[in-house]
Amino acid sequence: MAAPLPIFQLPLQPNGPPPAYDCNDWESDTTKSSTYRGFRAGINNRDTFLGETRCVVCGVVDSAFLNDCFIIGWSTYTEKMTWSNLKTRGWIPPKVKAYPEHEPRNGVVMCPNHCAGFNEYLFFIRYVPEVQKYVFINFSNSKDYEKFHGKAVALDPRDHHAPLPTLFIIHEMRVRGFRPFEPIEQHVPDKPAWQDWILSNGVLDTASDSLKRDKPPGSARYNPHITYDDSLPALETFAPTTANTGDAPSSGQSKLAQLNADVVRDILTATRESESWKACVREGTSWEGTADENTKKYSDRVGVSEVSEPHDDPSAD
Fold first, then answer.
1. Nearest Cα to Cα of residue 198 among 188, 210, 207, 190
2. From start to end residue, where is composition biased (Basic and acidic residues) (predicted)?
3. What is the C-alpha separation between 223 and 212, in angstroms, rounded?
4. CA distance readout (Å), 111 to 64, 108, 114
């Protein structure tokens, strides 16, 4: 319930309405609501495959239950300070939205199961620059998540609203800190494949290695149980990824690189060179100058300079 408006004295002051009665006070809430709608539109458009918004992990389609899952939370002062700190350190673009809950590059669409697992630090997502994929890591060794481990979720780094990879570093460190007795070393395939549902349902455009967004021709509503590309094997024929046991990796697998200074630097470099970073800077920049001025402004702000050393080495603790 909204707080009651304050009592004011008559007669009214000649220079404007009393405090809290100005239309600008109401506009603030309207602006926040509009900005959040922009956030939802951004991630829903990005995380749509074959015409349906889906969980990026398992591909489930149910708009009534899909969740907006935030990488950096927004409900506490600490999370808002984390967001501000990342901006100060240059881990996210200087032109990102002021609040984490308004920035679509800080969110993903997930089903309730995977959103809860993400928020409860059961798994993390690591962006691997060498293969340009966001890879699911079942750090808690949960039986429910074994089939997703070591495979890429449905996020395309070439998208203008792709999640900023550096944000997943913060989440990964929280997962590791929250579960200190799990094996530090995680085994993943040398060449991570896409999640099974992406392949079996024909979501992957094999020619461009991109994800299909549009609804299949002649389909009123996408059916997740139909395989649209008969040239691809059925879901049950895919071999599950080996679970993490702490033992030596099997053939075709290797240890996931730990978050040392070199790995952090590589992810930071990939983040600053990404289309998502560049698009974010463009969106937050005024282009009211001349053509030459705007060209220089674009080069100065979007052009990627040499990446500095990370401020902190997460592996130093």
1. 210
2. 308-317
3. 15
4. 10, 10, 6
Instruction: Give the pLDDT confidence score for residue 74 in this predicted structure.
Output: 87
Phi, psi of 152 (to 5 degrees): -80, 135
SS (H, E, C) 90-159: CCCCCCCCCCHHHCHHHEEEECHHHHHHHHCCCCEEEEECCCCEEEEECCCCCHHHHHHCCCECCCCCCC
pLDDT at 308: 44
| 8-state DSSP, 40 | H
Cα dihedral across residues 141, 147, 151, 156: positive or negative? negative
Q: Cα–Cα distance between 113 and 143 in angstroms, integer?
A: 13
Amino acid at 139: F
Taking the C-alpha atoms of residue 193 and residue 209, their distance in angstroms, rounded to an integer, is 11
- The reported pTM is 0.76
pLDDT in tens, 23-76: 444 434 544 566 778 888 889 999 999 999 999 999 999 878 899 999 999 888
264 CB contacts (<8 Å, ≥6 apart)? 169, 310, 313, 314
Provide the 8-state DSSP code for 235.
Answer: G
What is the Cα 295 distance to its own chain's centre?
A: 30
CA distance 93 to 272: 8
- Domain locations in the chain as residue ranges: 41-214+223-285
Name the token pair of 118. 């993400």
The SS3 assignment for 205 reads strand
Tally of CB atoms within 10 A around 224: 15
Burial of 299 (0-12, 13-18, 19+ CB in 10 A): exposed
